[in-house]
Predict the structure.
Amino acid sequence: MEIEKYQSGQDFIGFVNNLGALEEDVAAMLSRQLETLYCKKGEAILVQGATCRYLYYINSGLVKTGFESSDRTFIMRFFAEGEMFTVLDSYLSQKPSTYEVVALEDTVITRILRTEMDKLCTRFHAMETFFRKLVSMASVNMMSRIGEILEEQASARYENFLKENPELLQRISLGDLASYLGITQVSLSRIRAGL
Amino acid sequence: MEIEKYQSGQDFIGFVNNLGALEEDVAAMLSRQLETLYCKKGEAILVQGATCRYLYYINSGLVKTGFESSDRTFIMRFFAEGEMFTVLDSYLSQKPSTYEVVALEDTVITRILRTEMDKLCTRFHAMETFFRKLVSMASVNMMSRIGEILEEQASARYENFLKENPELLQRISLGDLASYLGITQVSLSRIRAGL
DNA sequence: ATAGTTTTTTATCTTTTGATAAATTTTCGA
DNA sequence: TCGAAAATTTATCAAAAGATAAAAAACTAT
């Protein structure tokens, strides 16, 4: 995992601007705090037990966020290029994370330290607004995920995933998809066979 | 459902101050926008298909937020006195809600219009910070709920609920608890019987 | 290309949960 | 207090998903 400081982070900035335009000087200050990460496929970006100190933006590649339970593992969400993510509870509490983040492909990431993000949010209302919108979007996604898990059987959740994320299906293993759906890999295989 | 305008809304203000102190004049402006709602047990505070225009604070009582599916119903969360809530997706998008909110007891609520909240957030950085923290807390709760539903069987989720919310158990029906756990009332009865 | 590893499928059997119906208990209003 | 309605439990059978093992297919590195 290579780290490069002082990258322009244009994609990251663009993402922020998309949720609400920043003034030039704020964008410049933000840009100065970004660094770029080059992760190999399979590499852990955050391990369970570590504290998540960054907000991340994916320039290219794909990651999974999840956790290991007794023996199985579960995936909370996949994030692909153009998406921003963090491990929210650990990021906010600055306590060790029960979740891990692993690259599923060679992945290029731009990140900013939470401490720097906090400074910017305190100083610039627009940054706080951006972060509020970001967390709001995450919440809405999680709401619908909860609703779906409660309501639908695994087979329907699989069908929905196909419909909503056809492009992702080519890029993730069926094992990981099963972990996301909350079933075993064997069960998913059975569902796919249409039994 | 009776509505009373120009209440002081001290509890609501107190909740906000708890997440980050407001200046006197901001608190006063906020206070002016609050109104109080008196709901009877069983009354709908928001029906499916209506748009959620308010952020709510519960002074006393208990509500459930959930949705009706094909035939069963599901509960996203219970909110009791001292908690703030809204139907986030509808509140943010101002589109019809797929979720409903129903009072489980006679409930007194203080609410503020989203349009007024937005004005305050735009005008006062501290209000935006408050709302960001509120949504952040909701997100963290939802994360752990997703993790738990994925990981645990219904029986373990029931045990956890007992441990985490012993006081609520006395106040909600087992049918509603089953809807929250994502199982049928009959299944919950079986789990309680310890089979 | 091929041997070895990993991923996916198939098969069998068990456990959990759902559907349905009926019995029992509780709640609540007249 | 009584009786109807609602909530909860119990029982039976069916469907969905887990555990395990083994076979087949797909990837990978030499």
User: Anything to note?
Assistant: Chain B has a mean pLDDT of 95. The radius of gyration of chain B is 18 Å.
